[in-house]
Amino acid sequence: MPEVAPGIQRWAAPQASNAARPGGGQDHLGLNGIDASGLLAQLLPNINVLTVHPRYQSFYLFLLDEYWRRGEHRASAKGFSQFLRPREYFHSLANFYCQQPTHPVGDYGSVIGSRRTSGWAKRRDPIYPFRENYIGNALGGYGYYYRSVALGLDLIAGPKFGSLPLDKPTKRGAELAEAFREAVHDTEYIRKYFDADEVPREVIEEYAQVSCLCRTSDPATPDQRPLLDAFTTAGLAANARRAGLRTFLDIADQTDGHSLDDERFRQLIYFGRTDDGATYRATPKLAKEVARWRVWQAREYLSVGLSAIFALINDWGVAQGGVVRALPLAALWDHLRIHTSFGELSRDLGPGHPAIELDSAFATLVDWQAKHLNLGSPDLPDSLGEHRLAQLLRFEPRSTTRLALAGLLLVTAIGRRWREADAGEEFFDAGGGDDISIRQIGKWVQSASERRITVGDALRELCERVIRLHLNVALSKLPEDRFRFFRELGGFRFGGFDIGVGFVSSRYLALATHAHELALCGDPSLPIHPLTNLGLQFLKEA
User: Fold this and answer.
1) Is 304 helix (H, G, I), strand (E, B) or coil?
2) Are residues 95 and 222 in the same domain?
3) CA angle, 322 as apex, 18 and 12 as ends, to 5°?
4) Please, what is the average pLDDT of the chain?
């Protein structure tokens, strides 16, 4: 029976893992739990991937306040569900009929229920009946996404055991609800159709001009200022939220003339420039906060590299028949030795690559990489090396060479660039319980160089580290079956799944939309996106 590689666990009871979290999902290495649920939640609390539009807080607080005002309603979650859903449905339709200058050109994304309501709105029916199937959750988008944000902003008092049976607006929440009420109270929808199950299209169109989610990008909108105050001053995480918004405004201010998106945001945070010419240097007062974002993005590059190695192992196992029989790891090492070539990779990365192969000293690769990619102090990076490697792994056709060597190079680049840095914070040690913190990866790169192992040995050690990580994470999720490969008869059997390689969401869309729809800057997706007077003042107060 083939030997098990040293350090790779056999079947055992689930082990504790900082990365692993209960439940399902596609986070097979637990990286999302570290990078998104952990670090990114500290950088940008209460501005989440799926809570894109800030004005939903005004809208839902208005509905909650209206429900509590009505004496004929019993304050219960079921009663509120029956009250909320028709009104959320008509509001969803209204967002597609807005014709105000603040409304973006083209499709308006991230509207609750839009998978169905956007198509229904395009039909321009003369009368719209309430359709129960516009969304699944009993409390709609409030229950799915926005309630947790309302709690974080101290807009609602959540129900407690033996206390309220339903969320109730706090003083701040009631004030926000009143401001939204002021914005919409004069519409025919509010005056005549607020309790109706059928609403004429022209009534929805009139309502849209004041209720649309885009309207708070106009400072004259009644709920704009209380909404901005909530996001910048409310809750235990207000300081971190302000810092995140100011960091974005600092970037937007220095990139006017260049459109922004998720890719450019990552490059500006990490390198201080993009591959299309935009540049960014953190304002001194925000330097510490930007440094935290940089360490987070370093972890994102590290995650892509580790995910590439995971995909390499999975792709090999599935292609070699590992779905129907166990494969020994020795066969994987043979496969890498035969099918991995730096010559092939050099065609992807361009000229300047030395004669390095799997039997070359790993230290030679590390020294060449440090020179070729200008890997020095993390404070003054002057290369897009990690970006180029990540693009290759995320978007180019997969091959053994690309996954193995570009994955190894990306992990090594992070370890080499950051190994001597003192981030002075928990971000640098995130993932330490699973042996995948940036500090640990840096120490591994240094140790592997000093031990004079070969590039092939380093690749094998990295594969074994990823195998251990996946088994720990999958074991921790039992009884759910999250194994993409598992031990059997001294080898490994594979589930036959596809493995993706990519970033965790940076929450860029939500962050950029909040900055714009809170009237702090122009639309960042456009080349011209100047900061407003409010935005300039907010940034200056950092």
Assistant:
1) helix
2) yes
3) 35
4) 88
Same domain, 228 and 313: no
Residue 537 lies in a domain: no
Residue 8 domain-assigned (yes or no):
no
Q: Do 410 and 303 fall within a single domain?
A: yes
Structure tokens at 103: 């409304």
Cα 350 to Cα 222, 305, 347, 354: the distances in Å are 56, 19, 6, 12
Which phi and psi (to 5°) does residue 491 adopt?
-130, -150
Contact yes or no for 451/366 (Cβ under 8 A): no
Mean pLDDT value of segment 213-217: 97
List C-alpha distances in Å: 336 to 282, 307, 313.
43, 17, 10
In angstroms, the CA 532 to CA 513 distance is: 14
The answer, yes or no, to whether the previous bond of 479 is cis (omega within 30 of 0) is: yes
Under the banding of pLDDT at 50, 70 and 90, the label for residue 160 is low
Model pLDDT, residue 276: 86
Residue 262 lies in a domain: no
Query: In this structure, are 137 and 191 located in the same domain?
Result: yes
Backbone angles phi, psi at 502, to 5 degrees: -175, 180
428: left (phi over 0), alpha (psi -120 to 50) or beta: alpha
Q: How crowded is the C-beta side of 520, counted as CA atoms within 13 Å?
A: 29
In this prediction, what percent of the chain has a pLDDT beyond 70?
Answer: 88
Q: Looking at residue 331, what DSSP letter applies?
A: H
Helix/strand/coil (H, E, C) string of 471-485?
Answer: HHHHHHCCCCCCCCE
The residue to which tokens 């690309």 are assigned: 402
Q: Is 531 helix (H, G, I), strand (E, B) or coil?
A: strand
Among residues 39, 36, 48, 38, the alpha carbon closest in space to that of 231 is found at: 48
| CA nearest to 168, candidates 280, 74, 68 | 68
What's the domain range around 323? 31-44+288-494
Length of the chain: 542
Q: Is the domain of 315 the same as that of 458?
A: yes
pTM of the model: 0.89
Q: End of a domain among 233, 265, 298?
A: 233
Task: Flag whether 274 is in a domain.
Answer: no
- How many other CB atoms are found less than 10 A from the CB of residue 321? 11
Q: Which helix (H) or strand (E) holds 408?
A: helix 407-418
Count structural domains, the chain: 2
**Average pLDDT rounded to a whole number, residues 8-12:** 34
Q: Phi/psi class of residue 82: alpha, beta or left (left: φ > 0; alpha: ψ in -120 to 50)?
A: alpha
Q: Are 131 and 89 in contact (CB under 8 A)?
A: yes
Are both 367 and 468 inside the same structural domain? yes
Residue type, 452: R
